[in-house]
Design a protein that fits this description.
- Helices cover 29% and strands 19% of the residues.
- By secondary structure, the chain is of the alpha/beta class.
- It has a single domain (3-228), classed as Aldolase class I (TIM Barrel), CATH 3.20.20.70.
- Strands 1-2-3-4-5-6-7-8 form an eight-stranded mixed β-sheet, with helices on one face.
- It is globular and about 50 Å long.
- The model has no long low-confidence stretch (mean pLDDT 97).
């Protein structure tokens, strides 16, 4: 496992749980608005955290924390992810996985082995703008669609989420996403903020008012949709 970050306590990343968040390095997308460029395009091996250090921390906090969030980067690229999660589960933790949805086979295996308890999948944009939004010419959309359909089948508790960027997401795109995800149990529109560690540049978030207007658009198709990062 290539681990390059840990947030030792979060009340936000795992809905309803006190959790720690582990950040893995490496991703197969190049989204310009990614706020973790140091985990995608600027990876420094000197920042690696040994698994033993992670496990020692989790054992120490097992009576306080309820869950562990594994994010990135794209965690499903890690060849040792299954074994890593098995060790975490053996300590009694719930596990939430963040993914871009590009590897349904690996995701299904983790679900079938009861190794993960919650999935958060990033929906980057409307289907016709996926290549542009992930910063690649390669067409990942067929895999993405299959993963969306799989999660909507309720194999595991899940949420979809989209970070709205003014330069990438327009009203028609938001409408198209709502139509695509119709029937989803949970969907969040997240406000983009420049972390200072972006892959791209010159990107801006929408105002709170525009975020609220965007929510009304998607609620026509997903009544339970909500906002994150908006006052």
């Amino acid at each position: 496992m290539k681990i390059q970050g840990i947030q030792k306590l979060t009340l936000l990343d795992y809905p309803g749980k006190m959790a720690a968040t582990i950040f893995t390095a490496g991703c197969n997308f190049r989204c310009p608005f990614c706020h973790n460029a140091s985990l995608v395009t600027k990876i420094d091996d000197r920042n690696d955290i040994p698994e033993t250090e992670i496990f020692a921390f989790l054992k120490k906090r097992s009576k306080v924390l309820e869950g562990v969030c594994i994010t990135g980067g794209e965690p499903l690229l890690q060849p040792d992810l299954e074994e890593f999660i098995r060790e975490i589960k053996s300590m009694g933790y719930l596990v939430k996985l963040d993914t871009n949805g590009s590897d349904l086979r690996k995701l299904q295996k983790l679900v079938n082995e009861s190794l993960i308890d919650y999935v958060a999948m990033d929906i980057k944009n409307a289907p016709n703008k996926y290549k542009e939004t992930i910063g690649l010419n390669e067409d990942f959309l067929p895999q993405i669609i299959k993963t969306v359909d799989y999660l909507k089948g309720d194999a595991i508790p899940y949420e979809f989420r989209t970070t709205l960027v003014r330069e990438l997401h327009k009203r028609d795109d938001i409408e198209a996403i709502g139509k695509w995800l119709k029937g989803a149990k949970k969907y969040y529109l997240q406000k983009f903020n420049d972390s200072g560690d972006l892959i791209g540049f010159g990107l801006r978030g929408y105002t709170d008012d525009i975020m609220k207007q965007s929510l009304e658009i998607v609620r026509k198709y997903i009544p339970e949709a909500n906002l994150r990062g908006v006052q």
